[in-house]
Specification:
heterodimer; A: about 450 residues; mainly alpha; B: about 200 residues; Alpha-Beta Plaits; four-stranded antiparallel β-sheet; rod-shaped; disordered N terminus
Chain lengths: ~450, ~200
């Protein structure tokens, strides 16, 4: 009897529960590939240079950067917003797609959550070093102090501190709680005398009891319900940093939804970049299939189109508002000295992703990989355009200025990439990169090779 | 099995020795069908260990819905009240700051922090409640009945009562055999009960 496949299988190849465990724990049980060592050497080198540049900045001050009195935020805040945006895909995938019962998330949620945590960590670096006086960083926290002052709860910068810290903590909880059953699997399978006790410690004594699973499922669902509005709130609050100011180009009500869509857009692009490498390098092609890539590409085109509409709405409103300052800022963005950045942003974020309407391109790994890099670049330039071009020609032409980064700033940015990739490479080496228990849960419904009439026999 | 050796260390406890049956299933559906059968025959099921969450087990085993959502709700409410009260107290009592003539009690600008704190409180409370209720903590040494339970085996732990007669035991094993269990183990080792 022929069955018409309603949905593409999410698992391919010869699979059973034991094979799934063996496949996903293989990178942990085996010696890593040479490429892994090459990757971690390169990324930790970049991270080392970055940390050196950060230390120089803390020691000597932000005078080492290209920022000036007109453009006070520069690359640091561009990078902050870019990293925070990337950090949105993980929780979007695990929380919002869980609530929507999207089964394809099971193969990518674990690594996307890890990516989220590392990206938010990288993001956190930038405002801290941008303060200039790192030892006084605790002044941003509301605690009773001998100075007799409190933080300003009317300031979006303070909301940002609270939102990003909450997001980091809740993401870590969500990630770790979801990983406990898989850590128990590792405890029972990894024989390494150093790693086994580590997994035993981290798995908190998980046995797989039905009562525990029942509670674990309830908790995950409610945590997802909490994390979903949290994701939306975090980038909205980041956008308030701009939107509540009175700078033309920043002072717009469209910012919160536009930033959230952009964040999910760039986050998915980064997930795709990482996953396309990981599935190849770690032989996970059976778990992260072309179908998964296509699903992610569909979200990318949806979010990319929202971002495109937001860009056009901004342009329209600048003209329609009748405000000469607003009009000038947008004319200056598209035609001024930073027009190159604006057009990189427009082409990478609006134009090229539209090619994903073609099914063949959505399912092409090479195209997807190149496009994901383009989107990463384009979204970085979006933040650059917002942060720099809105400021560089302000109300007073005598204070107009240009900005370009110094090597120190570039080293800090590449250093943050280094820190991110180092952490990610360590993660894929020592932790289950795919949620083993969750994938086993979809084996029956979403596996091509599973006999459908099993129950009748 | 050192079960009998161990029993000697519990002097005079043989009279109150409880017996347990461990049965293994190869598949989630087989496990569910087996459990229905065992339940129908009144077998006392102590625990079911599975490598992944099997949907429908709660219903078969008669577990009530977890209260963890309510814990989250209460903690979230506490977080919201804390966040809102804290900001209000600071801006109206402790440190009223005139910022461009804006009101001291500006409710809209207190919303973000209030929201974030309620999510933070709820998330931590639920995780802590989950760990306490499930008795999970770092450095635990749980009894691992079989290393393959976290891989591909489904296990049912059933109680056979205190000092069961050969006949009742044979009956019970019969139920397990009919339920489709692939491996059945009878243990009089008290340690197996430690999982509780």
């Amino acid at each position: 009897m022929k069955e018409s496949p309603l949905r593409e299988p999410l698992l391919i190849g010869e699979k059973s529960y034991a094979i799934i465990t063996a496949d996903i724990t293989a990178p942990i049980r085996q010696k890593p590939h040479k490429l892994w060592f090459a990757g971690i050497t390169l990324s930790s080198l970049l991270a080392g240079i970055g940390v050196f540049a950060m230390s120089l900045t803390v020691w000597q001050g932000t005078g080492l950067w290209g920022i000036n009195r007109t453009i006070g935020w520069g690359w640091a805040i561009t990078n902050l917003v870019w990293w925070i945006g990337i950090g949105h895909a993980g929780t979007f995938i695990s929380a919002i797609l869980l609530l929507f019962r999207q089964k394809w998330r099971t193969s990518i949620n674990r690594s996307a959550e890890a990516m989220t945590i590392f990206a938010v960590m990288c993001a956190g670096i930038f405002p801290l070093i941008h303060m200039g006086r790192l030892p006084l960083a605790h002044y941003i926290l509301p605690y009773p102090n001998t100075r007799g002052v409190w933080v300003n709860f009317n300031s979006p910068l303070l909301w940002d501190v609270v939102a990003i810290s909450t997001y980091l903590l809740v993401s870590v909880l969500f990630w770790y709680m979801g990983m406990i059953p898989d850590l128990a699997t590792l405890r029972d399978r990894v024989k390494n005398k150093y790693l086994q006790p580590l997994y035993k410690f981290l798995s908190l004594g998980w046995t797989g009891s039905a009562r525990h699973w029942s509670r674990h499922e309830s908790m995950s669902l409610v945590l997802a319900g909490l994390a979903a509005p949290l994701v939306l709130s975090v980038h909205s609050i980041v956008s308030f940093d701009f939107a509540t100011s009175v700078i033309p180009g920043w002072h717009t009500t469209i910012f919160p939804p536009y930033f959230v869509a952009g964040a999910i857009f760039s986050g998915f692009a980064m997930v795709l970049t990482l996953m396309l490498i990981a599935r190849k390098a770690m032989n996970l092609e059976d778990y992260i299939t072309i179908g998964h890539v296509e699903s992610m590409n569909k979200i990318i085109i949806a979010m990319g189109s929202i971002v495109g509409i937001a860009y056009i709405t901004e342009l329209f409103m600048a003209w329609y508002s009748g405000s000469i300052y607003e009009r000038f800022v947008f004319y200056n963005r598209a035609m001024g000295p930073y027009a190159w950045a604006y057009w990189i942003m427009m082409s990478c974020n609006v134009l090229w992703p539209q090619l994903l309407w073609f099914r063949r391109l959505r399912r092409s790994l090479v195209f997807t990989f190149i496009l994901s890099i383009f989107i990463n670049v384009g979204m970085w330039f979006e933040r650059f355009v917002i942060v720099v071009t809105s400021l560089h020609r302000d109300f007073l032409p005598s204070s107009w200025s240009m900005y370009s980064p110094t090597p120190i700033e570039i080293a800090i940015f590449t250093g943050s990439l280094g820190i991110f990739f180092t952490l990610f490479l360590l993660f894929i080496r020592f932790f289950p990169v795919i949620a083993i228990a969750e994938v086993k849960g979809i084996l029956k419904t979403s596996y091509a090779g599973y006999p459908k009439n099993d129950q009748l026999q | 099995m050192p079960a009998t050796q161990k029993m000697t260390s519990f002097n005079n406890t043989t009279m109150t020795q409880a017996t347990y049956i461990k049965a293994y299933y190869r598949d989630a559906d087989a496990l569910k069908r087996g459990l229905e059968h065992l339940k129908a025959n009144g077998v006392e099921i102590l625990d079911v260990l599975t490598p992944f969450p099997v949907h429908g087990l709660d219903r078969i085993l008669g577990y009530r819905r977890s209260w963890i959502g309510r814990v989250g709700f209460i903690a979230g409410a506490v977080g919201a009240i804390t966040g809102f009260y804290f900001q209000t107290w600071i801006f109206t009592k402790s440190y009223p700051l005139n910022i461009g003539g804006k009101p001291f009690l500006s409710v809209p600008s207190f919303v973000p922090v209030t929201f974030e704190l309620s999510v933070l409180f709820a998330a931590f409370a639920m995780v802590i409640a989950f760990l306490i209720r499930s008795k999970l903590s770092p450095g635990q040494a749980p009894i691992i009945h079989n290393e393959r339970i976290t891989d591909d085996l489904f296990m049912v732990l059933a109680g056979a009562g205190v000092n069961p007669t050969e006949a009742t035991l044979a009956d019970l094993i019969g139920f397990f055999k009919d339920s489709g269990a692939e491996g059945i183990l009878v243990k009089d080792d008290l340690n197996t009960a430690k999982n509780y």
